């Protein structure tokens, strides 16, 4: 049970629950959230048995989770083919969260390029990704199966950055792009104005890579 608790909750939250302490909701002024999904996942699933779909996602997420171990990020959840990661929470890290998530997004895109889908070796894996930075609130919901949940418009906007992105592209909001510019070392390209549900028109950018990566090529 203790091991399971540490797998579904951030360590600092799991420790409090284990010690019988109350975990209060908490606000964070600035975090960065990453969402991705698999383009054409529904069609792929129709070609596989349910067990093969499980094997496919397990192999992919095991690969992705290995990348996350290298950065100051936390995987919030996976729902089907959707993958959600955050930085700046529960461990505050100034504005470094934008760079951590951008680095993760680039590595996950690279990993998906070389990933071979079990039982569909000739089918390319195409990831669609989106990133946004802003304030959120977090809290633990439920008793029997506690879940660490995020709340706020930042979550919705990050999700929209993913849903309006394109295959094998990482779409970044202007708020996130400004933080990346302050940090330096990341290459972005203006996409233009995108109509985002619930937000109207937003200026967005493509995350192209790191300056060091581009200079090596």
Automatic annotation (TrEMBL):
The keyword GTP-binding applies. It is found in: Membrane. The keyword GTP-binding applies. Gene3D superfamilies: Nucleotide cyclase. Pfam families: Guanylate_cyc (PF00211). Keywords: cGMP biosynthesis, Glycoprotein, GTP-binding, Lyase, Membrane, Nucleotide-binding, Receptor, Signal, Transmembrane, Transmembrane helix. GO terms for cellular component: plasma membrane. Its EC number is 4.6.1.2. Residues 32-162 form the Guanylate cyclase domain. Its main location: membrane. It is a single-pass type I membrane protein. InterPro entries: A/G_cyclase, A/G_cyclase_CS, Cyclic_nucleotide_synthase, Nucleotide_cyclase. GO terms for molecular function: adenylate cyclase activity; GTP binding; guanylate cyclase activity; peptide receptor activity. GO terms for biological process: intracellular signal transduction; receptor guanylyl cyclase signaling pathway. Belongs to the adenylyl cyclase class-4/guanylyl cyclase family. PANTHER family: GUANYLATE CYCLASE, GUANYLYL CYCLASE. This is guanylate cyclase.
